[in-house]
C-alpha cells in the first residue's frame, strides 16, 4: 500500500491495523532508561504528599515536574 493510500484510509477512519507491525513498533525518543536518583528524606516526604493529593504515584509527580521544567527550558 502506498503511503498516500494509507494516509487516506487513516483519515477516512478505516481499520488500518492489518498494515501495521504492532510487535516491533516503537515511539521515537520514548524508549525507557532507568536511572537512580537519591533524594533527601524531606524531599521524598514532600513528593509523597503531593502524589497523594493528586492521586498518582511519586514517580508520576517526578516525571511530570521534570518534563515541565525541561519544556520550559527549551
Explain this structure to me?
The protein has 74 residues and is an all-alpha fold. The protein has one domain (3-72). 51% of the residues lie in helices and 0% in strands. It has helices spanning 3-11, 41-54, 58-72. Helix 2 packs across helix 3 (58-72). It is elongated, with a radius of gyration of 20 Å. 0% of the residues are buried. The mean pLDDT is 93.
Topology:
Elements: H1 3-11, H2 41-54, H3 58-72
Nutshell version of this structure?
With 74 residues, the protein is mainly alpha-helical. It has three helices and no strands. It has one domain.
Can you give keywords for this protein?
mainly alpha, single chain, 74 residues, elongated
Stretches where pLDDT falls below 50 for ≥5 residues?
none
| Percentage of residues in helical conformation | 40-55%
Radius of gyration: 20 Å
Figure out the total of helices. 3
Helix/strand-derived class? mainly alpha
The number of strands is 0
Order of helices and strands: HHH
Oligomer: single chain
| Mass-distribution shape | elongated
Mean pLDDT metric: 93
Q: Tally the structural domains.
A: 1
Q: What distance lies between the first and last C-alpha atoms, to the nearest angstrom? A: 38 Å
User: Which percent range describes the beta-strand content?
Assistant: under 5%
Largest sheet: none
Amino acid at each position: 500500500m502506498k503511503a498516500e493510500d494509507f494516509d487516506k484510509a487513516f483519515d477516512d477512519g478505516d481499520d488500518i491495523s492489518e498494515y501495521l507491525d504492532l510487535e516491533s513498533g516503537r515511539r521515537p525518543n520514548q524508549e525507557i532508561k532507568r536511572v537512580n536518583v537519591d533524594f533527601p528524606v524531606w524531599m521524598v516526604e514532600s513528593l509523597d504528599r503531593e502524589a497523594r493529593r493528586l492521586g498518582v504515584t511519586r514517580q508520576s509527580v517526578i516525571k511530570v515536574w521534570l518534563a515541565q521544567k525541561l519544556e520550559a527550558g527549551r
